[in-house]
Design brief:
Elements: H1 14-35, H2 40-56, H3 61-95, H4 97-107, H5 114-129, H6 132-150, H7 154-171, H8 176-185, H9 189-218, H10 226-238, H11 247-257, H12 262-280, H13 285-294, H14 303-309, H15 318-336, H16 339-348, H17 354-372, H18 375-392, H19 397-409, H20 419-428, H21 432-435, H22 440-455, H23 464-481
Helix pairs in contact: 1-2, 1-16, 2-15, 3-8, 3-12, 3-13, 3-15, 4-5, 4-10, 5-6, 5-7, 5-9, 6-7, 6-14, 6-20, 7-9, 8-9, 8-18, 8-19, 9-19, 9-22, 11-12, 15-18, 17-18, 17-19, 17-22, 18-19, 19-22
Length: about 475
């Protein structure tokens, strides 16, 4: 990480940079663990402390402020995408796209193949909605009840639910974490998803094999499927369920593989959803506008269905957007005042190869989940700390975004005191320590990405043109930020 130090300032000492980092870590940990508060204000406190450390090291306020502004500007593409994603979720639910995917997913359920079916159902639901928490809190809860009726150990069922839910969370263009990681690492959404499909595909395939093998030990039975049946009936009554409804997701996936930029690609998804909503669901302009801004509001009378489908809209993304902006302010100050460089250099002394660099990234993501107690901050920490190191080694940014998502996103629910672990344990009724060994996808993902790193599999190099462009951009930024 190369940052120019203005005349009259000095590089911070390691202990000074550590104070800034601890102000963020301790503040967030205390707020989330002891008070159940959101991380925004503790993060602002971290911005304040890091700014004071910068002033102590001789950096002028204008320089520190420029760091904040630059950090926020780096987050602007992500905020635009998040806004469009919020709109797309609301429109897709109104259009019946999401309900159709869930409906077909639920119909796959068979007691004889319950575990692999649970994995697949949750994967489809999370892929359609972009939320692991929403999937586990609705379909996941229902599947826990079915699993209990069939005689499956609940930790085993919870592991399958979480594995499927986090597969969809990682691979869905609707997921906020899937949008955050590439934006912070310096690549685009669809390049990130395509590059991540290699390690994620292996991890999911291994998980599916394990679930199939385990399913043979518990298959069969006549469990109570009334809860699932009730959801199917209500979905069928409230929406037109048709195979045509899966066209918008197919369109988005096609344009992603055609390497269309994320913003126009998601816009195409929104427009295709609008066509379906008007043509097949009979939606009018008022309903479209309300779903786009406020999200879809379900009122079927079934708590499971209403909870699953009442989401989306621009407004629903403001929490994540504000979190990203504040996080980028902190990262901007830490980066501009060289504090992040001091910390990263300590860690990078251990990274002697591409494999060890990816290992360091993965371990940072896991450690951040244990210390920061929030997957969003873990993503920010990993992506912002190692971005320059990957460029210096000639590695494309999608390698970084993949390593970050393969660690920070999935391991949050393996930490009992992390917000993810606490939520999932309370929702599924199984202690984190109990389901963790059976959440195969969550711990296979970081292991597989480390293996790919050391073996050099699917590691993308920066091309010469990109390297020259980045060097020119770095020189321009350095010139503009010198005081």
């Amino acid at each position: 990480m190369k940052t120019t130090i203005p005349e009259g300032a000095r590089a911070p000492y390691f202990w000074e940079a550590t104070i800034s980092l601890l102000s963020l870590v301790v503040g967030i940990s205390v707020s989330i663990v002891f008070y159940g508060l959101d991380p925004h204000l503790p993060m602002l406190f971290g911005v304040l402390v890091s700014s004071c450390i910068g002033l102590k090291c001789g950096f002028k306020w204008k320089t520190i402020q420029n760091g904040m502004v630059r950090g926020i500007s780096n987050a602007l593409p992500a905020t635009i995408i998040l806004i469009l994603v919020g709109i797309m979720i609301g429109i897709w639910i109104l259009a019946g796209v999401v309900p159709t995917l869930i409906y077909y997913g639920l119909n796959i359920l068979s007691p004889t193949i319950f575990l692999p079916a649970t994995l697949l159902i949750c994967a489809l639901s999370s892929l359609a909605t972009g939320t692991s928490w929403g999937t586990t809190g609705t379909i996941g809860v229902a599947l826990m009840g079915v699993g209990a009726g069939l005689g499956f150990p609940l930790p085993l069922v919870a592991g399958a639910v979480l594995s499927g839910a986090y597969f969809g969370d990682k691979m869905s263009p609707l997921s906020d974490t899937t949008n955050m990681a590439p934006a912070l690492a310096g690549t685009d959404l669809f390049t990130h998803i395509k590059h991540m499909s290699y390690t994620t595909g292996v991890s999911f395939g291994l998980t599916m094999i394990i679930e199939i093998v385990l399913g043979f030990q518990y298959g069969g039975g006549d469990g109570d499927l009334e809860r699932i049946a009730a959801m199917l009936v209500l979905l069928d009554q409230n929406f037109t369920i048709n195979i045509v409804m899966i066209l918008p997701p197919i369109v988005v996936m096609v344009v992603s593989f055609k390497k269309m930029p994320a913003i126009p690609g998601i816009t195409v998804g929104v427009l295709s959803g609008i066509i379906i909503a008007v043509g097949l669901q009979g939606a009018d302009f008022s309903q479209l506008a309300n779903a786009a801004f406020n999200g879809f509001s379900a009122s079927s009378g079934n708590e499971d269905v209403d909870s699953l489908l009442s989401r989306g809209g621009m407004d629903s993304m403001m929490y994540t957007i504000s979190l990203v902006i504040i996080a980028m302010m902190f990262g901007g100050v830490m980066e501009r005042t060289n504090q992040l460089k001091v910390i990263a250099d300590k860690v990078l002394t251990l990274a002697k190869s591409t494999g060890s660099l990816i290992l360091s990234t993965v371990l940072t993501g896991i450690a951040s989940n244990m210390v920061l107690c929030d997957q969003y901050m873990s993503i920010v920490m990993g992506a912002r700390s190692y971005a320059q190191a990957y460029r210096d080694r000639g590695l494309a940014p999608e390698n970084l975004s993949r390593a970050v998502e393969d660690s920070a996103t999935v391991t949050s629910s393996l930490v009992p005191w992390n917000s993810g672990g606490a939520y999932q344990a309370a929702t599924l009724g199984v202690a984190t320590i109990a389901y963790a060994p059976f959440a195969f996808f969550l711990w296979l993902s970081p292991l597989v990405t480390i293996l790919f790193g050391y073996m050099g599999w699917t590691i993308t190099k920066l091309d010469t043109t990109t390297l020259l462009d980045q060097e020119s951009e770095t020189k321009t930024k350095s010139k503009n930020t010198q005081e």
